[in-house]
Write a structure and sequence with these properties.
The protein is an alpha+beta fold. It contains 16 helices and 19 strands. The chain has two domains: 133 residues, Beta Barrel (OB fold (Dihydrolipoamide Acetyltransferase, E2P)); 258 residues, Bira Bifunctional Protein, Domain 2 (BirA Bifunctional Protein, domain 2, 2-Layer Sandwich), CATH 3.30.930.10.
Length: 495
């Protein structure tokens, strides 16, 4: 067994504590106590036993969980066990439990062990709901000490690398992931109630598409071909629309070979939905109904607090064009400046992450993300994007230089992206060819030419409104977390 050395909270090394626990393990077996039984019949979870005390008082119940505190006395002791729903106190008396089992608890059980307890539900003289234990069953002996709550797990990197320890000692972290689960089920319920059908699309794809991003590449031995982890679910969901499935969605993991920061992780969860006979305005109305509805279900309110700001999620949300949003913050009119070189000259003093060769679309995108996005605290739709930024979106009839697209921002974070989907196969091919030129010029995130998708469009796709929502970012907002790593159970980290 590989041992991790270092100090433990009581001053002993971790190696010493593991050795002690291994000796206790052997002692338990010597007493005929199996430290890893196959099952335990639990009749109540901890939170239920406490919440339903008036109904269950005096009845015998069975609870289970991890020992998180112990107070050993003479012939009576106390401990708390924790499960997913919370902690409950166990009251152990030698004359009720029996001398042999009571001494085993005192001498051979440790913090971190899993136990099952059967006994009468009661309250102590201090008024705490407790189980007066008649029978105690060891369910799993813990061989490593838990981190001391306030001092043993403060290192952020360790919290992420050993998330199981983070979950054990930090109840607020468990709550984040309980809320995340509620968000995903609520999103699913919202769409299903509106007639959407959930489908699944390939994670391994012969071509990557549906977003501007670098992919992860892998190799399939049996097929003898390179494949890519999907960067979006979009192009396959549109194939379903062409096939006659008028309302479809998928909640799934996508993978982008990009940097890591507070709002980006190389693998993340996205909701994408597509609705035939709808456009981006229909999708916009759906989003401003969906987000407060989800918040009500998981938090009980459509008003949230994010990083000290009170945010009202109720519709209607503010709508502003990309042109006006940038002009408000910088004084630069990106629609009036059609020449790339002139736009660069005016933007250069702002010290953005652009170069003299950056395409016009890249410059506009940097203006949005750097100068506008952080200021969008209350829910806001930014609408009408340049066609250069949106190779899969339909042009605006009254201004072909723009597309029918919006991005939704809350708390200074982009949470949704949507457009009226491009269903003109000839225009789509031309856009893909422009993307190939951009890739040849050095844009590693540009789209590739997907002939199979174009052939799909040539069979005809009805007018369609498409939507993508970042589930991780939505969870950040609804749990008041500044970093995406706090809401991804096992985030990617450097080795």
């Amino acid at each position: 067994m590989a041992l991790s050395t270092g100090p433990a909270p009581d001053g002993n090394s971790v190696d010493d504590l593991i050795a002690q626990r291994l000796r206790k393990l052997e002692a338990l077996r010597a007493r005929g106590i199996e430290p890893y039984p196959t099952t335990f019949c639990r009749t109540a979870v901890n939170g239920e036993a406490i919440a339903e005390y008036d109904r269950l008082a005096g009845q015998e119940i069975s609870v289970a969980g991890r020992i998180v505190s112990r107070r050993i006395m003479g012939r009576a002791s106390f401990c708390h066990i924790a499960d997913m729903t919370g902690k409950i106190q166990l009251f152990l008396k030698e004359d009720v439990l029996g001398p042999e089992h009571y001494s085993a608890f005192k001498e051979l059980y440790d913090l971190g062990d899993f136990v099952g307890a059967t006994g009468k539900l009661m309250k102590t003289r201090a008024g705490e709901v407790s189980v007066e234990v008649r029978e105690l069953t060891l369910l799993a002996k813990s061989l490593r000490p838990l981190p001391e709550k306030w001092h043993g797990l403060t290192d952020v990197e360790k919290r992420y690398r050993q998330r199981y320890l983070d979950l054990i000692v930090n109840p607020e972290v468990r709550r984040i992931f309980q809320i995340r689960s509620g968000i995903i089920s609520s999103l699913r319920r919202f769409l299903e109630d509106r007639g959407f059908m959930e489908i699944e699309t390939p994670v391994l794809q012969p071509l990557y598409g549906g977003a501007t991003a670098r992919p992860f590449r892998t190799y399939h031995n049996a097929l003898d071909r390179a494949l890519y982890l999907r960067i979006a679910t979009e192009l396959y969901l549109k194939r379903a629309i062409v096939g006659g499935l008028d309302k479809v969605f998928e909640i799934g993991r996508v993978f982008r070979n990009e940097g890591i920061d507070t709002t980006h992780n190389p693998e993340f969860t996205v909701l994408e939905s597509y609705e035939a006979y709808a456009n981006y305005l229909d999708v916009m109305r759906m989003v401003e109904e969906m987000i407060p509805w989800v918040a009500e279900r998981v938090l009980g309110s459509s008003t949230i607090t994010y990083q000290g700001e009170t945010i009202d999620l109720r519709p209607p949300w503010r709508r502003v064009t990309l042109r006006e949003a940038i002009r408000e913050r910088t004084g630069i009119d990106v629609e009036a400046i059609t020449d790339r070189d002139e736009l660069y000259r005016q933007v250069a003093p702002l010290k953005l992450e652009i170069t003299p060769t950056s395409p016009r679309g890249k410059i506009i995108d940097e203006l949005l993300s750097t100068k506008v996005e952080p200021t969008l605290i209350q829910p806001t739709f930014i609408v009408d994007y340049p066609v250069e930024l949106s190779p899969l979106a339909k042009r605006k009839p009254e201004n072909p230089a723009l597309v029918e697209r919006f991005e939704a921002f809350i708390g200074g974070i982009e949470i949704a992206n949507a457009f009226s989907e491009l269903n003109d196969a000839i225009d789509q091919r031309a856009r893909f060819l422009q993307q190939i030129e951009a890739k040849a010029a050095g844009d590693e995130e540009a789209h590739v030419l997907d002939e199979d998708f174009i052939e799909t469009l040539e069979h005809g796709m009805p007018p369609t409104g498409g939507l993508g929502i970042g589930v991780d970012r939505l969870t950040m907002l609804l749990t008041d977390q500044r970093s995406i790593r706090e809401v991804i159970l096992f985030p990617q980290l450097r080795s």
